[in-house]
Amino acid sequence: MKTILLADDEPNLRLLVKTTLSDPRFRILEASDGKSALELAKAELPDVIVLDWMMPGLSGIEVAAALREDPLTRGISIIMLTAKGQQADREQTERLGVAAHLVKPFSPLELLEKVDALVG
Amino acid sequence: MPSSADVLSESDTQAPSPTTLEEELAELRAVRARYDETMAQLERNERQLVSYAQDLKKAFDLMKQRAEALAAAHYDTLVRLLRAARFKDEETGAHLLRLSAYSRVLATHLGLPREEVERITAAAPLHDVGKIGIPDAILAKRGPLDADEWKVMRTHPGLGGSLLKGADSPLLQTAYVIALHHHERWDGTGYPKGLAGEDISLAGRIVMLADQYDALRSERPYKPPFSHERTFDIITRGDGRTLPSHFDPDLLAAFVERHEELDALFEANRDAPATQNDSDA
């Protein structure tokens, strides 16, 4: 049983991503802001986190950095799902060693393929 | 004193009259209705989008399933082709299994990508498929072959190659070079073409060493089975027939590191007793 954590402040987007990835082999958890995403990640140690960047409070990039800092959560694969798609943004996530940087509006097929490659 | 009516013109009149209030109310209601309708439309769109997402996941899973089934069916066909070849040959199922396993160990040690390791492992059993074109009299002969018979026997790599040539799939392309090259030697004294060094495909070199190891360990009409120690010695130091120069030096080094695993694989997968024939398939 693989665990996927979805972190995005938009409930409609969480619903869409959850539906797209829905699979009997996956347990899908949700977080609506950065702080609870980080807490949930440390508590549940998901295999993959689908992470929005712009969230109130702790941003996605800060969550990603914190996950990388902590040896406990360092192994979690990060898929950045964000409207921020400039070269500078991509470089920033790349430096953190994210598994993928998908720009909104994202291709659901691309998301499916990335997740499949990581936990399929 | 002028009355307010004199100072203000009609168009300046801002005092709400019952008519204007009703109009504003009506407009507000209309706006509200449009808002409600827009929200309802958004909700319908949202539900439709969810439906798309569900179908997309289903289609993706189906696609993946079909790709896997195709690969399995493809491989199944190869294995059956292989068994057709084995009807005419002494080689046992266990030998082919061991050959795959040795190849996997050596390929992994050389640090090849996982996909390539798996491909070589899967294709290795096809190395002798060309024997299907060798006359039974020669294949089934118990004693040593004479010069003419050897000449015929040495055509089996080429025959295997012609069977597998021009295939689409990477798996069969690897099987092609393995069939062609598994009797070539690093120093160019092999057959059928006397290729040398890196002109011989890596897959071919790997299977050649794996095949040599297994042949030395196994019983043949012309020789008893050799122990692992004696086999190790023959491969690494030569015995006049087999020489270290026959092998790729990197492969020899890999063999020296991993030889115990090959021994374990041989012991774990010995041929079934001679009374059992190809019903073991």
Please supply descriptive tags for the structure shown above.
heterodimer, A: 120 residues, alpha/beta, 5-stranded parallel beta sheet, 5 helices, 5 strands, 22% strand, globular, B: 281 residues, mainly alpha, 11 helices, elongated, disordered C terminus
Structure description:
The complex is a heterodimer of chains A (120) and B (281). The radius of gyration of chain A is 13 Å and the shape is globular. In chain A, helix 2 (34-44) packs parallel to helix 3 (60-69). With 120 residues, chain A is of the alpha/beta class. Chain A has helices at 11-21, 34-44, 60-69, 87-95, 108-119; strands at 2-7, 26-31, 48-51, 77-82, 100-103. Chain A has a five-stranded parallel sheet, sandwiched between helices. Chain B is mostly helical and 281 residues long. Chain B has eleven helices and no strands. Chain B has helices spanning 4-7, 18-86, 93-109, 114-123, 136-139, 147-153, 156-164, 170-181, 202-217, 228-237, 249-268. The longest helix of chain B is centred in the first third of the chain and has 69 residues, at 18-86. Chain B is elongated, with a radius of gyration of 38 Å. The model of chain B is unreliable at 275-281 (pLDDT under 50).
